[in-house]
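Incident log entry.

Two folding requests arrived from the same account within the same minute. Monitoring flagged them as a possible duplicate submission, but the sequences differ. Recording both here for audit purposes.

Request one:
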Amino acid sequence: MTLLEQWAQTPAAKTLGWTLVHTLWQGAAIALALAAALWLLKSSRARYAAACATLLAVLAGFGLTFALLLPPAPLSGVTIRTPFFDPLAESYQTTHPAAWEGSAGKVADAVLPWLGPCWLLGIAVFHLRMLAGWRQARRLRDAGVCGAPAGWQRRLDGLRERIRLARPVALLESCLAETPVVIGHLRPVILTPIGLLAGMPAAQVEAILLHELAHVRRHDYLVNLLQACAESLLFYHPAAWWISGVIRQEREHCCDDFAAAVHPNRREYAEALVALEQSRCAASNAAPAASGGSLVKRVRRLIGPPHRPRLALTPALSLAVLTIAGVAVVAAWQAAPGGEATQPPLPAPYQRWLDEEVAFIIAPDERNAFRKLTGDAERDRFIEQFWERRDPTAGTPENEFRTEHYRRLGYADQRFLVPSGAAGRKTDRGRAYILWGPPDEIESHPAGVRYRRPPEQGGGWTETFPFEQWRYRWLEGVGADVILEFVDSTGTGDYRAVIDPLVKEVKPYAPGQFGGDVFYSTEPGARVAVEVMPDRRILVSAPIDFDAVEYLITGTVRSRDGRVEAVLERRVSLCRASPNQFGCLTQPLLQTYAQHRLSAGSYVFEVVVKDLSGPARKDYAINFRVN
């Protein structure tokens, strides 16, 4: 597997892809706001500030969106007891596809992770472009230059003192520059073409120099470099390029207004701009120059009556980008796996193979492809290729994977058969056995037991329902030392996988039963409780008091100074909402233990319980203290 393929499988890859998509409509909306602001603002300084703030807003939106979409990494402060339930939930998708309709489309899942590498490649290309422009500017500064006549350097110093510019500015003549240009930030230099100082009237030259000094006074060289960096990051966004163009245009207008305010004759300054345009080159954006921007518009601003600027097609372009991006986002989020509900039923043997024999190992795309086949010959060939793809020793007479799979099916049906009649392969223990084989260790209590809790679960003795704990030293794609817990809380022999270890206790947990200090949320309705145990570990109880198919519970423990001490994120379901789902909660209460002892001090625990398929959510905040 290549590094790019490894990257595409990380949460950050998909998050970055969604961020790039969301930035399209966000940037378009921000550009529309700027278009409205430019229609109202008349001052070039205000318009320039608005354009700069807009470009920063697009960048900030990018960073904020990425931070909000990136799944928080669980810290060491909170135990997530059963991270292996996500793969089991995926196996449930194959047997209950209707329950998973409305999830993100497969096309989006496949494409989004690869947007990030393309974006990084584009950034590299544009940074190389920016570096080439910077080197071109340095070449102008160092090659083919000579000092300007002493008289003109003194005039420049006089103009600099006149506008109260403390930094020294050198004046050089260049055989490469075709128009006056400012290069450098710490030690700025104004380059003028050879013959310009002698060939133009002195008053016009002073007006041009005032324009260049305005660039120095406003730190435009540095701002221009930062703007080029922003363009590189947002190179894929048309609205960003339009905003950047507005910034460059208004920057020149600001310098024009400054020079015209200091120079006694605005028309003479306008004539100087016209003279410069006659020798204008297709200059690089690496350095600000007096000839930048549209000459006609700049001269009209200087000598014509005030007028409201035209925005051309910019609002329409932004609106089009906003519409296209919005439709793409909605389509991606609303896309369903599709196709299965409308497919005709399969012949009984093939339906049995799909729903009973390979239900837990067939991938969703394989399942969809199989259902679309129209002939028995095609289906037989598909089944043959299905097992061939999984054969660890291709070319040998025996397919060890298929042999082991059917052995597990037979063992599960025989060993985990529920007295009520449910097939063993359809029980939670049967599914786990089929997926991962026999566990390395089993702790079984078939008649219940007086049970001593581990220290990380609060310690002490309790009475339990019949339960089993399966330990796997290693599960591929899950991790090391994985513990699955199954509880028979009904006494029928139907052991259900549980997320919360307290479920197996006959007496439900009540806050305070471990002798610790209990703190509650103050919001109306069901309350979240934090019990601070004597050893400074905490036990959190989060009730679920609204119906949903699946919940997302996110919790953060912060110290009073805002430092994050622990993060919890878990997707759970209630069995009453999804009675057939593997590992759902059997009671509307989620408990989680802290793994480490908190230092003495004050903390706040913030909890959000959300309905993953709807708008319902509850927010809780608990202030507590550890002595």
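Request two (distinct sequence, not a duplicate):
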Amino acid sequence: MTRMPHPPSPFLVSLLLIICVAVPGFAAAKKSKSAAPAKSAKSAKVDKKSKADRGRDSKTAARKPSARETRAERAAASKKGRAAEREERAERGRGGRISKRERLAQARREAEERRRREEAARRAEIARQAAIARQRAFDKAIRDEVQANILRDDATGEDPEVRRVAVQALGYHAASVVVMNPRTGQVYTIVNQEWGVRRGFKPCSTIKLITGLAGVVEGVIDPMIENASYSSNRMNLTDALAYSHNGYFQQVGRRVGFDRMSSYARQLGYGERTGINHVNEYAGRVPLFKNDVGMLRMSSHGDDFEVTPLQLATLASVFGNGGTLLTPHLPRTPQEAAKFKTEVRRQLNIPQESLRRMLPGMIGSVNYGTGRKAQDSQQTIAGKTGTCIGAQGVWDGSFTSYAPVEDPQLAIAVIGRGPDARHGFPASVAGQIYRALAYRFGKTNGKPSLRLTPEMLAPRPKVDPNALADTEGQEDSEGDDVNASAVDANGSSRPTNDGLKRVLLPVETRPTSVTTRPSNAPVAVPSKGTQPPPSDVRPRRVLSNTP
């Protein structure tokens, strides 16, 4: 028989459950009891340390701080203040409100800047007033010099009426006036003889008379045709003289060459005494050498030339009498005046036709060009102006002329300096003399000389003066020296410092090894159908009406 096991007793089961539950709790309680003493010991140590610190703090508070500690505290406070300022500036940059301290600092900065600007303006005004005072002192000094020279003039033998009119026209200004007869060489008056006979000046644009005449005689330019271009306009010799275009004559002089230009200048009396019966006459100066680039400004501005007003008057007389260089003479006594005879220095080997081709440009200069202030409605005047920076950086202004063109009886040359060289003053003085003496010297007697045609006596401009650049009147009413065209060795233009690109008149020539040898071929002229060269200016856009 099989023996069956007895089931566990309920008591035993309950006991086992109690043991399983009670034993883990007892272990945890034992562990907590063992950790409690360690924690209490650590807390005791912390409490002791806190008490010690409080004791040291009380001792430190009772002790007086040292100087090092005070400086350290101040540095810390300053650093904290700077940090606060940076925060305020940052807050202001973010659009926040500005503190009172920042507003005061800003006000101080603005006041300082305002004081600085006011001081700079005050100093600039003082410098401006000083410059004005210096300029006025210079103007007064040079004008006083001229007045003193006029008082020392030897007026023996001069025409009293002509001298009175010339002195009245000159007034209290710094200039010299020469009035003579272009046919006989008789000198009527020289006002300010120190300047008129014994002192040389830069001829400026009056040198273009020699450049143009040399170009016509040598065949470099043909005045019968339009031979140069400027933008969309065409310019001939007449308008180039009338408006005193620098680039035109620079290219002509470059084609003529230095040797021939110097030869024509000497033939026309430059670089030698005129032979007038005045003591210590100055012979003037002609440059000894110019390279290809130097020829440009020599041909348009007269660089390194020096002429006297008397030499300018004899130059105008050459155009008035048909090519004869006379010796000016002043009769000192009535007997000498009664026996006066014309003295010819030399008869120029220049065709009269070439001289006649220069007259329309000289007449145009007075009628509508740079010499308009010399115009007289009762007679035809031919002349040429010139204004540039002369010796010692002082302005020189000149005007040489003769009238009436049909029957020349007066040749007047005026050279001004300093304050009276610009704004057409020399031409204005000559115009006043012509108008005042027209009743005596302005009669033509109905006999035109040199077979002048109406086209020569009344030329009309063919170009728009407002579209021209690089002319004598570009920077001033007469000024032709400031910002002149910059030209390289090949004759092409280059930009100048004023930001404008100067355009020179293209006179075509073949390159040669000797620059002073001109080409006898006339200037090349583009056909009428050819388009002008493209410019740097962008074309204007034209909007179409079509959709």
